[in-house]
Structure formats: structure tokens, C-alpha cells
Amino acid sequence: MFETLQAQPADKILALMAQYREDPRETKIDLGVGVYKDATGLTPVMKAIKSAEHKLWEDQDSKAYVGLAGDPAFGDAMIKLVLGDAVPRENIAAAATPGGTGAIRQAFELIRMARPDVRVFLSNPTWPNHPSILKYLGIEMVDYRYFDDETRGVDFDGMIADLKTARKGDMILLHGCCHNPTGANLNMTQWGEVIKVLLETGATPMVDIAYQGFGDGLEVDAEATRAVVAAVPECIVAASCSKNFGIYRERTGILMAISTDTSSKGLNQQTLGFLNRQNFSFPPDHGARLVTMILNDDAMRAEWVAELEATRVSMLGLRKQLAGELQRLSGSDRFGFLAEHRGMFSRLGTTPEMVEKLRVDAGIYMIGDSRMNIAGLNATTVPILAKAIVDAGI
Q: Is 93 helix (H, G, I), strand (E, B) or coil?
């Protein structure tokens, strides 16, 4: 049987990690892996998570299964965090998943069940796992223009023109904030135009929000998602707790199916539970329980919010420092976009050849499309990166 298996494409990020580990240079910089790192290069455990884990260790009296959709209290807490009061709770079905990736996978399974002929519109570029999972599931994909390599901002006119080709029964995947991999984001006026297109075409939006709190703050980062779900008749939202709670290993995510037809909630909820059962049965609970405890406890929540805000401010500081250093070295403001981008990532907008030159000449490791993890920097490595970029002639 196994002799019929075919080799799958190598994961570019994992391959880059291997190259980085083997590089003996002390000045090498890892900007490839999409995890937050502090100034010492560590991905720390948040104090709020430690507090919750200690309390859980003391109080938890069972490791029995939870429901197929996870603990309902986790769903309630995450719905409040992500959606606020944008739509009534009775309009929302929700299920816990193994991380944001699990939520994305279940969302694609859901839409394939509902619409076997669905087309999913993806921003160009998007997170590589989006097209990878869709291809594996045999779901048709359509690119829409998003990133402008000249301005390093959003090609909004191109985006709107492409979205207008969608039709009822299609799904349009949108990044709720902190676009991965570019860091370039829509403003709320532009989001209003996207909503108009959604209503005109009848296409269903799916919002992937994996970085709430990493951009302009917890509430501001949720504004676009809330505006979308409040405006359209149906929507899917996939959220991750990996980044903003720092629990990458715990695989904590949630999938929400929102409908203005409240009679649909029961069927939607049953379907989400069914999909979980077919895939992994009961979702993991440890991370979800920690998140629930933090969001429902005033003291732990305040501690978490303060830590998250410090993380966000740190990344903004690195952005401004890098943009300023590049301006000083190049005598040009062409890198000003770095200070305007939000979240962990920015895309330089250069060629794979230039990215390889940075790796060979200066030990700078980033993805071939020039996506770099800003959180992989610190105050010491910013000048090294800036000099490498200018020396390479980018």
C-alpha cells in the first residue's frame, strides 16, 4: 500500500528553520517563523496563563471529555471577545477547535458540505495554509488582488474589482486584522466598501482573525470583523488564541457560524459538532479552559490585557525603529510602510533572489516572498537588518 504514496511539497518555513539552525554565524537573524519573541529571543509564557494554570491545577477535579463543541463557556467568552455585541448570541453557533488552523479546516469542510460547488476567494497573497487546505479538499480557489509591490500597501481598487466578480454561493476569505503575510490592512472606510460588495454579490464572507490585539488594540482590531458580521445575513469567523494568549502548543481556536435567521442556529451547531466528531471527536480543553478563566476573571484579564498591550507596543516600536534606521541609511523614505503595517508581519516587496542574497550575505532568514516576522527582531538586530537591506540594494 505505502509504495503508492507520493512525496508532498516541503514546507518552506520548516526548511528555512533547518537552514537557520545549521548556520554558524552569530549575527544570523530568524525572521521566518511566525511566533512572537521577546527581546531575548524567547517566546514567553504569559503571567496570566501561569496564574490560570496554577488555579486550574488546584481546582480541576476531572479530565473527562467535554462536549463535541467544547465547553460552552469558552464559546461564550470568545464570542464576546471577538464579536462583542455586534450580533445577538442566539444567532451564533460555535465550536472549539485545535488551534486557528483547526477552525480554518472545519470552516472549509462546512462550506463544502453546504455548497459542493463553492468557490473560495483568497487574497493574493494569503497565509499559505489557506490554499494548501483548499487544494487538499478539492475546493476551487479564486485569487483577488491585495498587495501592491510598489507601494507595499493594499491594492484596494484591484481588490474591489476582483471581489465584484464573486456570486451568490461563493465565499470570500478576509483577514480580520494584521494581514498575514503582508502586514498591510484596510481602513474602516475601505471595509465599508468591501461590505457593500458582499451585499451586492450575495457572496458569504469568512473572517480569519488570528492576531487580535497585535495591531491597534483588542477592540480596534475587532472592529472590521464586527462590522462584517453585523451587516451580512451569514458569516463564518475562525479565531485563534495562539498569538494573543501565547499558547501555541495548546492548540486553542474556535469556529463561529453566524446567521441572522435564528432558526438556523440549531442546525449550524449540530453540524459543527458533527464535523468535530468526524475529525478529532472532542476538541482539546486545556488551552480553552485557561482562556475562559482569564476572560471571566477581572484580575487575570487585566493582567493579560496589560501583557498583550506591552507585546503590541513592543512590535510597533520595532517597526518604527526599523523604518527610521532604513531612512537614515538609505536617505529615502521608501521604507516608511514598515511603520504603517500592523501585526507580526511585513512584506518587503522584493524578489526571491534578493531574499536569498540577504540569507547568503548577511544571515537574514525570511520567507522567499519577502515576508518577515517583525517580532523576530530586537533593538540590537534592527540596525543589522537595516544595513543588510540597504547593502543588498533593495
A: strand
pLDDT at 40 over 90: no
Grid coordinates belonging to 320: 518604527
Q: Which helix (H) or strand (E) holds 272?
A: helix 265-279
Full residue range of the structural domain in which residue 94 is found: 65-296
Give start and end residues of each alpha helix (H) in the chain.
12-22, 47-59, 72-83, 99-114, 129-137, 156-163, 188-201, 218-231, 265-279, 286-295, 298-330, 337-340, 352-362, 381-392
Q: Dihedral sign for Cα 18, 342, 311, 97, please.
A: negative
- Which pLDDT belongs to residue 12? 78
> Any idea which residues carry the catalytic annotation?
127, 208, 210, 243
**Helix crossing, 99-114 with 129-137: angle to 10°?**
40
Q: What is the pLDDT of residues 320-335, one digit of tens each?
A: 999 999 999 999 999 9
Q: Is 58 contained in some domain?
A: no
Cell reading at 31 = 525572521
Residue that terminates a domain, selected from 296, 330, 359: 296
Q: For residue 62, what is the DSSP state? A: -
pTM of structure = 0.95
Mark residue 23 as left, alpha or beta (left: phi above 0; alpha: psi -120 to 50; beta: remaining): beta
Here the cell at position 230 is 453585523
pLDDT at 41: 82
